[in-house]
Amino acid sequence: xxxxxxxxxxxxxxxxxxxxxxxxxxxxxxxxxxxxxxxxxxxxxxxxxxxxxxxxxxxxxxxxxxxxxxxxxxxxxxxxxxxxxxxxxxxxxxxxxxxxxxxxxxxxxxxxxxxxxxxxxxxxxxxxxxxxxxxxxxxxxxxxxxxxxxxxxxxxxxxxxxxxxxxxxxxxxxxxxxxxxxxxxxxxxxxxxxxxxxxxxxxxxxxxxxxxxxxxxxxxxxxxxxxxxxxx
Length: 232
Hints:
Elements: H1 2-33, E1 37-39, E2 45-51, E3 54-57, E4 73-74, H2 78-82, E5 88-90, H3 96-103, E6 106-107, H4 109-112, E7 122-124, H5 127-136, H6 140-147, E8 175-176, E9 182-183, E10 188-196, E11 201-208, E12 215-220, E13 229-231
Parallel strand pairs: 4-5
Antiparallel strand pairs: 1-2, 2-3, 5-6, 7-13, 8-9, 10-11, 11-12
């Protein structure tokens, strides 16, 4: 009987150690699942926010590479931009230093359509996913205000309804027209969806400084818009 008691006393610490390892591993995995940021292929870091059942990036995409490491073509020349039917990006006014960090890049829809623009585990939001977001925030009439960054540090006055109550922090990154010119940074933000409308158009959302609404619209695939990604 004494021998059995000694054996049990020797095994007991090992059981405790084993349980501790399992619990420690479990906690580590939980922490990984609670990550608050994600990196793109360039190493840019994006914060994330949960809105309803969806997890979104808080910043506009600014990668110059697809998630397979291949480069996206930068186009500064307006004429060259206007004739493209292949993936491309630009910085507003071709000014990376001033606009990359805050507003991200402007991509044509051909870059979106590759399916490789977002980091692994993420994707460019579909039109249906945008509509789910808008519905959760109360509908098209008020969702724009809840998505916009508050104040006029980036949005032009009056930034109607802009309170960022969603945490999405939408910025007015403007756009690049199909003719290659840049337009209305500060007053409007445009975001591509990955949803095609016609052979020449795709769906996007836009918000303005003068309204709390958000609008779902089709536009030419040659336009340059901002991109927000959503978790798979």
